[in-house]
From TrEMBL:
Residues 6-145 form the Transposase IS110-like N-terminal domain. Residues 189-272 form the Transposase IS116/IS110/IS902 C-terminal domain. InterPro entries: Transp_IS110-like_N, Transpos_IS110, Transposase_20. It comes from Octadecabacter arcticus 238. The keyword Electron transport does not apply. Residues 153-180 form a coiled coil. Keywords: Coiled coil. GO terms for biological process: DNA transposition. One of its GO terms (molecular function) is transposase activity. This is Putative IS110 family transposase. The keyword Kinase does not apply.
Amino acid sequence: MTDDTIGIDISKATLDIHRLSDGKTMSFSNCPAGFKALSRFCAKTAVARVVYEATGAYHSGLERALGAHLPLVKVNPLQARRFAQAQGLRAKTDAVDAKMLADMGNAFALEPDEPAAEIQHDLKELRSFRSGLIKDRTGIMSRMKTQTLSITRRQSKARLAQVDKQIAEINAEIERLINSSDKLAHSMKILRSIPGVGAICAATILIEMPETGSMDRKQVASLTGLAPMTRQSGQWRGKSFIQGGRKIVRDALYMPALVAMRHNPDFKAKYQALIKAGKPPKVAITALMRKLIELANALIKADRNWVTKGA
C-alpha cells in the first residue's frame, strides 16, 4: 500500500499502534527507545499519515523525537470521539482507539502537520512546567489560609518564596527563547501592542497557537474554541455555547479581556452593546476574548501593531 495510515493511541506508558493496510497492531513504550522502534515499524511501508490525539504531556515526546521524520497528524480529542460515535463504536480500549484514529485519518485524508521547530518544543515544555508551578502556588496559598501552627506557616512561606523564584526563572527563560527568534520576537511586539495583552498572554498565544497570523477569523476562533456552537432543530433553538479548542489559550485570554473591557474604548463599547442587548456578562466577556484572538491573528497577518482608532 503506498498511502498507508497508522493510528496511535497514546498513554503515559505506551504507544498502541494500528496499521490500516493489514490490520497489524503493535505496542511500544512511550520513551526514546519506543520512538525508535515506532520509526522502524513505520519504515516498513509507505506511510501517508500517523494519526494520534492531543494528550497533553503524553504526546510531546513523540512530537519532539519524530516530528521531523514521520508525517504526524494531531487531532482534537472531541473530533475523534465524534468520529467514533458516528462509526457506532461503543467499546473503548487502546486497540480500538488506535484503529479508530487510523480510520479517521484515512476517511478524511488528513494532511500531516507542519513539523514544529526545536524552539517551539522547548517553549511548550517551559510553559507546561510554569503551569504546574502556578498550580503549586495556588495550592500553597489556599492551604495557608487554614494553617495555624507556626512551623507549617513558616514552611509554607518558604515554599511559596521558592515557587515564586522558580516562576520568575521560567518567565525569564521563556522571554530569552522568544527574543532569540527574530520572528517570535517581532510577533511578541505586535501582540504586546494590544491594550490588555501582557507578556504571559502573548507568550501563551505564540507557544500554544503558532498558527496565529496564518488563519482567517473563523478559523482562529474555532481553533481557540471561541466560535459559538448553535443548537437548532426546526423551530426549536437552544442556547449557543463554546466547546473544544485550545483551552490553555482561552484561559490566557480571560484576564486580558477584562482589562480591555475596562481600558480599551473599542472593547468597552462592544461589551456595553452586548450587555444592553441582554447578553449575560460571561457571554459578553467570551465575545471579547474572541475579538482579542481575532485581532491578534489579524495584526500578525498584516505585520502591524495595534493603533487606537482616531490616533
